[in-house]
Design goal:
Blueprint lengths: L3 H18 L5 E3 L15 E6 L3 E6 L11 E5 L9 E6 L6 E2 L4 E6 L4 E5 L4 E6 L6 E3 L3 E7 L84 H16 L2 E9 L1 H18 L6 H14 L6 E3 L4 E3 L6 E3 L1 E3 L2 E3 L2 E2 L7 H16 L5 H4 L4 E5 L18 E15 L2 E15 L5 H16 L2 H5 L2
Parallel strand pairs: 15-19, 19-20
Antiparallel strand pairs: 1-3, 2-3, 4-11, 5-7, 5-10, 6-9, 7-8, 9-11, 12-21, 13-14, 15-18, 16-17, 20-21
C-alpha cells in the first residue's frame, strides 16, 4: 500500500505533466503577449510558474480519499434489559469480501440468536473476538475496510472450443497388424473324454458348514460422542431448574370437548381464509379463551416480587406461545391479547412462527409475557404436566385431540376430546382459583358464544 505522501507526489507529478502537454482542462498556460488574467478564469484557481518560463492557471478542487479506504469498527448491538451477554459464532473470516447487510456473525443469547450484518460493502480486516467468545452490548466485534460498490461476480470463463483435429496423412495411420503365419504342423489332439461313472452317496463329501457368527457380530457400533450445549439450551436448563427450586408448582387437569370448535372451524375456515388470507386454527381459540379467563381470574396473571415481598398485578395480558425450533424452545409473546380478535391472533401467531423457523426472532419478540401456552398436541401428546416459565405464575398445556367415549345426556358417545393441564405457583394461586380458571377456558372453547355474551 503506497503512503499518502507518495500518492500525492505521484498524482501531482502526473498533473504537472498534463498541464505542460495541454491535456488538462483545468489548467491553462498563458500565451505569449496575452495576459493570463484576460482569459476566463476558474473559481479557486491559482497561478503557478514552472521552470521560470511557463505560467499555468490551476484550479484546485477536493476529491474523496482514493489512497486510503475508510476502516470502521462494528460493535455488538444493544441487548434487551433481560439479556447481559452472548456467544459469538462467526460466519465470515479475515479477508472475506462482504456486501452491505450481509451477515458476518451471529450472537447467541439466552433467548435467541442476533445476526450482525455488515454496515457497508468492504473487506473484513480483523476479528476482535474469538469464535465462541462472550460479548456484551457495545463490545467491538470486527473491523471492516469499506470499499465501493460490491464487486460484481466474475462471469465464468467460457470453455475454449475444442480444437478440430487436423486430417493426418495416410502414412501416419496406425499400421495394420502383421498377417498370421500359416501353421506347418497339426495341433495336438485332445485326450478323449472320460465316461461318467456313478459313485455311492456315502462317497460324496458334505459341503463345509458356514462359520458360526460370533456373539455380538453384526450389531451396530457401541460408540458415543459429545456435543457442547449451546447457550440457549444452557439457559433453558437453568431457568427450568430455577422454576422448580423457587415455585411451589401444582398441576390441575380438565378435558375439553372439541366438537363445537371443530364444527365452527369447518364451517367458516374458507370464508375466514378468503377475507383475512389466514388459516383458522385452534390456537387462536385457546389464546382468546385464556385472555378471557385471565381477566376473570387476575391472580393467575400476577407474579410475586420476591425482593419486595409484593404481588404485582398486571392490567395487560401478554401471552407467550411456546414454539419448538432445532435450537431449542422459544416463547415469542403476543401482546395485549385482550384487545385482539381471532384474525389478529392468527396473524400474529403466523408471523412469529415464521420468524422462529427462520431464526429471525428478535429479543424484543420474546421479552416479557404474563402467561404461557404450550401446545404438545401438535406432536401427538396425550397427557403431560408443563413447567412454569419464570417469572410467570402459570402455564397452560394443550394436548392432542383423540376420539374417546364420553357420557353425554346419559348416553355413551364418541367425541373428539382434549386433555388440558394448568401448572401454577401454589404460593400465589389457590386451588379454587386454578380450577375456576381452567373451567373458564373449557367453557369458552366448547361454546365460543360465551366470549360474545361475556358470561
Amino acid at each position: 500500500m503506497l503512503s499518502r505522501t507518495r500518492c500525492v507526489s505521484r498524482a501531482f507529478s502526473r498533473s504537472l505533466s498534463a498541464f505542460q502537454k495541454g491535456n488538462c482542462p483545468l489548467g491553462r498556460r498563458s500565451l505569449p503577449g496575452v495576459s493570463l488574467c484576460q482569459g476566463p478564469g476558474y473559481p479557486d484557481s491559482r497561478k503557478i510558474v514552472i521552470n521560470n518560463s511557463s505560467v499555468f492557471s490551476v484550479r484546485f478542487f477536493r476529491t474523496t480519499a482514493v489512497c486510503k479506504d475508510d476502516v470502521i469498527t462494528v460493535k455488538t448491538p444493544a441487548f434487551a434489559e433481560s439479556v447481559t451477554e452472548g456467544d459469538v459464532r462467526w460466519e465470515k473470516a479475515v479477508g472475506d469480501t462482504v456486501a452491505e447487510d450481509e451477515v458476518v456473525c451471529e450472537i447467541e443469547t439466552d433467548k435467541t440468536s442476533v445476526q450482525v450484518p455488515s454496515p457497508a460493502n468492504g473487506v473484513i480486516e480483523a476479528l476482535l473476538v474469538p469464535d465462541g467468545g462472550k460479548v456484551e452490548g457495545g463490545t467491538p466485534l470486527f473491523t471492516l475496510r469499506k470499499t465501493g460498490a460490491a464487486p460484481a461476480k466474475a462471469k465464468p470463463a467460457e470453455a475454449p472450443a475444442a480444437a478440430v483435429p487436423k486430417a493426418e496423412p495416410a502414412t501416419s495411420a496406425v499400421p495394420p497388424p502383421p498377417a498370421a503365419s500359416i501353421p506347418t504342423q497339426m495341433p495336438p489332439m485332445p485326450s478323449p473324454s472320460q465316461p461318467l461313472t456313478s459313485k455311492p452317496v456315502s462317497a460324496v463329501k458334505p459341503a463345509a458348514a458356514p462359520p458360526v457368527a460370533e456373539p455380538g457380530a453384526g450389531k451396530g457400533l457401541r460408540s458415543e460422542h459429545r456435543e457442547k450445549m449451546n447457550r440457549m439450551r444452557q439457559r433453558i436448563a437453568q431457568r427450568l431448574k430455577e422454576a422448580q427450586n423457587t415455585c411451589a408448582m401444582l398441576t390441575t387437569f380438565n378435558e375439553i370437548d372439541m366438537s363445537n370448535i371443530q364444527e365452527m372451524r369447518a364451517r367458516h375456515k374458507d370464508a375466514f381464509l378468503k377475507k383475512h388470507n389466514l388459516k383458522l386454527g385452534f390456537m387462536s381459540a385457546f389464546v382468546k379463551a385464556s385472555a378471557f379467563a385471565l381477566q376473570e381470574q387476575p391472580v393467575v396473571n400476577a407474579v410475586i416480587d420476591d425482593a419486595t415481598k409484593e404481588v404485582v398485578y398486571r392490567d395487560y395480558i401478554d401471552i407467550s406461545v411456546a414454539v419448538a425450533t432445532p435450537r431449542g424452545l422459544v416463547v415469542p409473546v403476543i401482546r395485549n391479547v385482550e384487545a385482539m380478535n381471532y384474525a389478529d391472533i392468527e396473524r400474529t401467531i403466523s408471523e412469529l412462527g415464521e420468524k422462529a423457523r427462520k431464526n429471525e426472532l428478535a429479543i424484543e419478540d420474546m421479552d416479557g409475557g404474563t402467561f404461557t401456552i404450550s401446545n404438545g398436541g401438535v406432536f401427538g401428546s396425550l397427557f403431560g404436566t408443563p413447567i412454569i416459565n419464570p417469572p410467570q405464575s402459570a402455564i397452560l398445556g394443550m394436548h392432542g385431540i383423540f376420539d374417546r367415549p364420553v357420557a353425554v345426556g346419559g348416553k355413551v358417545e364418541v367425541r373428539p376430546m382434549m386433555y388440558v393441564a394448568l401448572t401454577y405457583d401454589h404460593r400465589l394461586i389457590d386451588g379454587r382459583e386454578a380450577v375456576t380458571f381452567l373451567r373458564k377456558i373449557k367453557a369458552a372453547v366448547e361454546d365460543p358464544r360465551v366470549l360474545l355474551l361475556d358470561i
